[in-house]
Amino acid sequence: MTVGPQPFAALEAPACVLDRANLDTDQIVPARFLRKPRSAPDGYAPFLFRDLEGLPPGARPAEGAPAARILLTGPNFGCGSSREGAVYALVDAGVRAVVAESFGDIFRANAARNGLLCVRLSAAQVAALMRSVTASPQARLRIDLPEQTVAAPGVAPMRFEIESFSKQLLVAGQDEIGFTLARAAEIAAFAAQAEAERPWLVPPPERLRTAP
Amino acid sequence: MPPEDATAPPRTLFEKVWERHVVARDAAGNELLFIDRHLAHEGSFHAFAKLAERDLPVARPDLTLLIADHYAPTRGRGAPIADPEVARVIDQLGENAARFGLSLIGLSDPRQGIVHVVGPELGFTLPGLTVVCGDSHTSTHGAFGAVAFGIGASEVAHVLATQTLWQRRPLAKRVRFSGRPDAGVGAKDLVLAMIAQIGADGGTGAALEYAGPTVEALSMAGRMTLCNLAIECGARFGLIAPDRTTFDWVAGRPLAPEGAMLERALADWRALASDPGAAFAEEIAVSVEGLAPMVTWGTSPEQAAPVTGRVPDPAELPTAAKRDAAAQALAYMDLAPGQPLEGLAMDRVFIGSCTNARLEDLREAAEVFRGRTAQVPTLISPGSSAVKRAAEAEGLDRVFRTAGVEWAESGCSMCVGMNGDLVPPGARCASTANRNFPGRQGPGSRTHLMSPRMAALAAVTGALGRPEESAR
Fold first, then answer.
1. Do B268 and A202 touch (CB under 8 A)?
2. A98–chain B nearest CA distance, Å
3. All domains of chain B, ordered by start, with CATH?
4. What is the pLDDT of residues B433-455, one digit of tens each?
5. Structural domains in chain A plus CATH codes
6. How close B162 gets to chain A, by Cα (Å)?
7. Strand duo B130-133 + B103-105: pairing
8. What is the ipTM of this complex?
């Protein structure tokens, strides 16, 4: 399942409440699965939250049904290891957005490049959304990325902040490699000047290649 | 070297290094950063697959170094690897090196070891550089005054294709330690105390500069331990201004500049310090007066206490989130509120990882093992093959072997268990590594983080205890 990220616009979907703090990327996808290629038909979906116990329905894909497309969770989600497999597991399981008070910085960077939206709200706002979903589990949350809003039944629409760069990547549904490659000449000129000023910026090639 | 502009506003060390690397800036303030050094391990296969999909070459093969560490077998090195998937990812690293024309340090290379130990050891890491790796503990290299940070596979692919990254500049915060800790307290204890104070997300969005006399007195090994654990409070970057200790350590490394070029580099590096009056987003003061060795009791690095202390009562913690997290952690760790930490029995000991497996760490452990016997299965995996040879030259391996300790090859080993070095379900492991997350060392494993001295003591007594020096 190595399709590129899907462009993100508006999303209306049921949500799952996983109210735990500090859900690190080892818990999202245990290390023993990271050697797997992502090319299997269901990608990394089977590894999502694999060792976690007491999960609510919808947290993991089950019986052919995908996981809930929106995850409401506790602070510092995705802290720890830089493994992008954590994002693959969520995306491959059908999750399109995670709503939490805070996220690990590397996780958030990985998410934006794979079509997974990280919505940061205050603790009180996340709690209000969790109450709304707990009260009516079938209710649908609406997340509008261009407008930067989240709405839920019985909760006033909330605005969230997101870095413009992440927003661009998500709306376009692509990573930035092509965009940056268009500046290759500018990058090469920058490097040439820096290396002329500070020649130690380039390690001696023969010594790099072989053991002394 | 042009003289510093006396009218320029004072800048932090982080800003100085960062600003040197900005290729371009967009209207929204995102910056395209040139990357001087890229380290990659076996997990990079996801990133190389992205490159292959688009048929892209590596932009600067001379600035990337591939090293086998995460899946490296620590036993029976040289024999075929039993697990075909593990063998495959290690083979793929070599295949990608050949295909993209990159330098490789494979399993049989005498330089092999953990990326964050080998990079500095070779002089691949230098002051003032930008260093990235698809590994969150890349913050380690900040100990040299480098801007070093962990990235995911998509960003690894971006670095390979362009030698740059688009970033938003994080806030620079400064950490100062004050007071005199107990004897036997080192860098690991200082940084665990800091994380316990500010929390596992207390550094999110920030670059932490460690400063002050306590930090300046640390060796490079201690400084690397401090910077290594920056990510455990959420900070993607940790850094320390390079000084005489740094320069002495770097000079003579195989990839470091020599002769006249070294003199030029030193002149440049000496300017890499925060200017007086430079503004930090936050000043974090950590008092370590009388601090006893630290040990984690929970499943987040913030859940740590002095070994002389007790497991906290979740009900007494300040916020609902901390109370819930502590209650879950105690259930997972099979601990009771109020239980003393001293005397807690350990089933396993692991001394290794990018956090604490350098020669100095092994010497510290050997002091404890000398003339004693390990009471529980103990594994020592040196941070690199060079560290292993140096330890053997000093006879440390004989101390360990005589104590009944397993002296293994270098790799990430039991810190993350990807190579099969696992802690059994339910077993309690005293570990010198960096993460005590549920299942980190294997499904159901229970990890207590501590210094090499404390881990060695746990090995010879079978329980958490105070080093004799501090018990006096």
1. no
2. 17
3. 13-168 (3.30.499.10), 296-465 (3.30.499.10)
4. 999 999 999 999 999 999 999 99
5. 10-174 (3.20.19.10)
6. 6
7. unpaired
8. 0.95
